[in-house]
Amino acid sequence: MYQLRLSAMRSLVTAAILATASMPSAADSQEIGDAKRGYDFAAQHCAECHAIDFGNPKSPNADAPSFTSVAQTSGMSGRALAVWLDTTHPTMPNFVLHADDRDDVIAYIMSLKNRPPPK
Questions:
Q1: 99 backbone dihedrals φ, ψ, rounded to 5°
Q2: Cα atoms in the 13 Å half-sphere on the side-chain side of 87
Q3: Is domain 33-119 annotated with CATH 3.40.50.300?
Q4: Hey, where are the domains in the chain?
Q5: d(CA 119, CA 105)
Q6: Which 3 state secondary structure label does DSSP give 21?
Q7: Would you call 70 exposed, middle or buried from its count of C-beta atoms within 10 A (0-12, 13-18, 19+)?
Q8: Can you tell me the distance from the alpha carbon of 50 to that of 28, in angstroms, rounded to the nearest whole number?
Q9: How far is CA 18 from CA 23, 43, 46, 94, in A?
Q10: What is the tens place of the pLDDT at every residue in 31-90?
Q11: Max CA-CA distance within the chain?
Q12: pTM of the model
């Protein structure tokens, strides 16, 4: 069951990356959202299932990827995360994020992307 969920998640992330990769935008070079507010939001709403702190690989819910692993997925971008978060998923609670909250969470997750791996 876990392998099926993980496979479905990877497929959706891959589809989101492919769908957004060819969409040029002037905003590509601009940062959106506030990483600090994104962390605070994630601590309140996401940490029940996801490991949200950098380098913490073990999420409370074994089926939920850590934010670090999401950020460091090859090809991951803010746009791919926006598509992912705006899409209904059978493995996540069905909630709607306000655009500002979504952008803040994306900014936080993307802040984890280029950090060196934990020792």
A1: -55, -40
A2: 16
A3: no
A4: 33-119
A5: 25
A6: helix
A7: buried
A8: 27
A9: 9, 29, 25, 23
A10: 689 999 999 999 999 999 999 999 888 999 999 999 999 999 999 999 999 998 888 777
A11: 41
A12: 0.71
